[in-house]
Description:
Rossmann fold; binds nicotinamide-adenine-dinucleotide
Amino acid sequence: xxxxxxxxxxxxxxxxxxxxxxxxxxxxxxxxxxxxxxxxxxxxxxxxxxxxxxxxxxxxxxxxxxxxxxxxxxxxxxxxxxxxxxxxxxxxxxxxxxxxxxxxxxxxxxxxxxxxxxxxxxxxxxxxxxxxxxxxxxxxxxxxxxxxxxxxxxxxxxxxxxxxxxxxxxxxxxxxxxxxxxxxxxxxxxxxxxxxxxxxxxxxxxxxxxxxxxxxxxxxxxxxxxxxxxxxxxxxxxxxxxxxxxxxxxxxxxxxxxxxxxxxxxxxxxxxxxxxxxxxxxxxxxxxxxxxxxxxxxxxxxxxxxxxxxxxxxxxxxxxxxxxxxxxxxxxxxxxxxxxxxxxxxxxxxxxxxxxxxxxxxxxxxxxxxxxxxxxxxxxxxxxxxxxxxxxxxx
Length: 395
Ligand SMILES: NC(=O)c1ccc[n+]([C@@H]2O[C@H](COP(=O)([O-])OP(=O)(O)OC[C@H]3O[C@@H](n4cnc5c(N)ncnc54)[C@H](O)[C@@H]3O)[C@@H](O)[C@H]2O)c1
Ligand SMILES: [Zn+2]
């Protein structure tokens, strides 16, 4: 494993930091736009735009963080972006070191967590020091948990480099790692001090990962924003070409929605935050079933979203036509909307769903839609209905 690779010295360049905190006109590319996450003393700003990595140091300086910091990144992202992050931090007077972990879900493990702690201790990070999570959701969850627990908690900044991380995982403070017995079983709530979504970093994201991130974007439309959903239907070609202007609007809208939801229910106690799990009951089951190999998170969520939409038509008031629209959009994105089920696989899926965190008292709970943009969490669904819907998504 690559861990503790030191970043090369590089030429320092100065880039003018633009900062606009008001809403831009639709379809106008502004150098940067911001979304506030209002959580009292734990409030922070999400910055969305081009060229943000070069301004990382300026953002950290404004937060009055200590001198020393550790950039935790992975073996795909580090070689591409760690030097730029190091340069930006040094230019602002910080003393950064780089900790590189192997890319993928495997990074969210007790073993890698322990190695990160050792690296931070070796680099003599102290209470005012901070962590920069440079990468996708895996790095963000791991680095955030390192920051939540090292020296009983230090600050961290998220620099999200996947679409999924920019619209979802970097915001809201859920951090953690996996155990052999299940995903995200050890974790904490630890809000970042700032989130940077540099849209330029998406240019190197593999197509499959980009599409997977789109599953979460579609989710926001379904749970809270029919206008976003229509926009996705209308502007999908531009989005899939990663047009920065269009992406900037979409990422900002998703971050605004996530910020509102997290602001209303930071610790997932009232049920509001649980709506973010739309499509995730079956989704997590399928992910676990495939040993986290066959389907990556967003792909499994796409299948789970089709299942949840069909259940919503069956048990709630969502018209069949709307469930079709949801499936069609996911299909146009290139996400899976049907899956092969052997009877054995179906049984294993039920087992996997029952192991998930969303189960209480042994009963499977779903977020279901009454209409596009209006969902209710905590819906108990009998196995017979789940089976009927699995028939509908079977290839
Ligand atoms: N904390 C939360 O609220 C939350 C929410 C949703 C998902 N998650 C977690 O997020 C994780 C998935 O996140 P993800 O989809 O971002 O996966 P990821 O972090 O594994 O990134 C996907 C792949 O893309 C590579 N990559 C990342 N950025 C790149 C770039 N700009 N250019 C080239 N390659 C790049 C990574 O190295 C990796 O191989 C899961 O573990 C999931 O549980 C957490
Ligand atoms: Zn998800």
